[in-house]
Amino acid sequence: MTNDTKNPPIDRVDGRMKVTGGARYFADFELPNMAYCVLVGSEIGRGSIASLDTRRAQNAPGVLGVFTHQNMPPIPGWDAPVGGEADGPAPKPKTEETYRILSSPKILFDGQPIALVVADSYERATHAASLVRATYTRQAARTDLRKHVAEGIAPGRPGRSGDYVRGKADGYKEAPVTLEAHYTIPTEVHNPMELHGILAHWTGPDSLMIYAKTQGVNATQQAMAQAFKLDPKNIHVHTEFMGGGFGMGLRTWPQETAVVAVARKIGRPLKLVVTRQQMFTLVGHRPYTVQTIQMGADRDGKLVGIAHAATAETASYEDFTEATVNMTKFMYACPHVSTRYRIVRLDRSVPIWMRGPGEATGAFALESAMDEMAYKLGIDPIDFRLRNYTETDPEHNRPYSSKHLREAYQKGAEAIGWTDRKPQPGSVRQGDWLVGYGMSTGTFNAFRWEASARALLNADGSLTVQSAVTDIGPGTGTALTVIAHNVLGVPVNRIKVAYGDTSLPKAPTQGGSAIVSAVGSAVFEVCTAIRNTLVELATKAGGPLAGRKADELTLADGQLFVEKDPAKRVAVSDLMRTNNLTVIDKSGDSKGGPNQAKYSMYSFSVHFVQVRVNPLTGVVRVTKAVSVADSGRIVSPKTAASQMIGGVAGGIGMALTEEAVIDHRFGRFVNNNLGDYHVPVHADVPAIETIFIDKPDPIINPMGAKGMGEIALIGFAGAVANAVFNATGQRIRELPITPDKLLRTT
Ligand code: MOS
What we know:
Blueprint: H1 15-19, E1 35-41, E2 47-53, H2 55-59, E3 63-67, E4 106-107, E5 113-119, H3 122-129, E6 133-138, H4 145-148, E7 164-166, E8 177-185, E9 197-204, E10 207-212, H5 217-228, E11 235-238, H6 254-266, E12 270-273, E13 289-297, E14 303-315, H7 326-330, E15 336-346, H8 359-377, H9 381-387, E16 392-393, E17 398-399, H10 405-416, E18 429-430, E19 433-445, E20 451-458, E21 463-466, H11 476-488, E22 495-498, H12 515-539, E23 553-556, E24 559-562, E25 565-571, H13 572-578, E26 583-590, E27 602-613, E28 620-630, H14 637-657, E29 662-663, E30 668-669, E31 688-692, H15 716-728, H16 739-744
Parallel strand pairs: 1-12, 10-11, 14-15, 21-22, 28-31
Antiparallel strand pairs: 1-5, 2-4, 2-6, 3-5, 7-15, 8-13, 9-10, 9-12, 13-14, 16-17, 18-19, 19-27, 20-21, 20-26, 23-24, 24-25, 27-28, 29-30
Helix pairs in contact: 8-15, 11-12, 14-15
Bound molecules: dioxothiomolybdenum(VI) ion (MOS).
Dioxothiomolybdenum(VI) ion binds next to loops.
């Protein structure tokens, strides 16, 4: 872990609040006269409701209303798209179906809400929901991607198709050594501990207070303004804390809109908390994806060509796309590269981005194939990557803003003990266990989105920093505290960061590993504006440091002083008092300059693992993990390390345990609970070493910080698969690597 005075490894500023119950999550809010609702899901995957009997539910104790497609209050904005993907208003191709919750008897996916039952307590709503009866006209649900893959459609949105050619599309065929391999990622679900939901309170005929589980309060505000044709200013959204997001809160879901509509109808605040089962169908998932990699290299280990094709599922009613094949376009120096991306509309609820969206799926295929090719060539996998290392982005023909991947390979290799690895698979045995080592590269766009912030320096020396951004868990408040501390020298315990509320300066949705870069830059700039004001006051004629230049001065611990002559100093509080200032208040917007277009901005990671595989039981244990991040300057070392550790735990799940299984006869999940959908527990996760290259990116933002939330996961599953091959000689190309797959191929 990085340890220096500039970026102190401070504790999570809200950590104590979180573990002592002081942090209030959306469902913790209770309002006078509040009602509760429960959603009833369809029992078929495709067809329509033939009859619906809600009488018993309506007559159950405490019930305030049962809302179905027969009596849902109208939602004025339902002519326009409700919610919509979080990435902007790009034109969308016409889909096969339209999904408007509780507006039609048509069923488009298993578990689709058919009734929303409102009662005066959660328990009574749950009981009444159990009394709703439906009969259906059933059609066969199309949920099996493999079966319907031939019907893949090219997503029609410009720039998102993923189809790309550099050199010749099948140039790999010209190489003396070639391979073709197929890789499968199952459906994975985010399953954060905190369940999804919303509390909607109409505070007036046209004004709304919302407590939601959203990764972006401004995005929810916009979506609701659109749905209810309200001025966004009249919608107040609060999400200060989230018990994990991983992408499931990157959009406003239809059931949220329904709750808002019903709350207006019944004239009471209304709360929805979905069930764990509903987390599998109502808040998105990582799409089931099949991929093919064709690769050719010469005998010296130079890549000649790569062709990467991916096909993923989406819903019948919305074309969800992600950047699954992007890494292949720019990761390695390779003259012939082609990628192809297709989606297939199935009778399933729509996917959404999940940590490392697209790239985590693509990296598993590409980095497995790189390992397969290295083995074919008899070259060490790190050496193979170094022989194809590129210092500039071959996709866009421009430099990277920063890239220190060589150093990452080297540091990770040392830390895992790569020299202990034997190139011959299955050659290391310790007791009952086969031991293997694997590695993989990861990468993700380093974004800098537009954001605003406000900072207020008070005469008592305390500082308040404000941004509407939510914290889905990485420690945003902590990182922003460190950034403000570094500019203004205010002790971290005198800094209060207020966030997660639309009353605060506008911020992008927390996602895409972009928040330190985006909101951090805004905080940096408003704090710099405060610093400039202090320097002006001190150095102006008659000021205590008159005649001094700004760059001679340092701000620390509430004192402004001449760095080379520290006796020349003034307390910030005195400076403000003598100028009759009780507060210095600065606001501003921040975004990257035009210069950034000349660079490709990516974060990089390298994951190394040691695994032990029991050849009798097929059990795989990750016994050592080292993750190295080249994500620019590390702003908050302690929370950054936590991010990496969380990514590894998620990566172990992706590699070894996580799979949402559908019974295609019914189009229904059969393991939609945390007993059967396996996420790693402590016993599955070894001690994890995190290493930061910690070199500032000179282009992206004033802190030099690139994102790191996604790269903590991206590539990890490939490292495990590669290690399993090294341990056993068995190449598993379908995640998760469960014992049955290892035993099947023994
Ligand atoms: Mo993340 S998938 O950008 O929440």
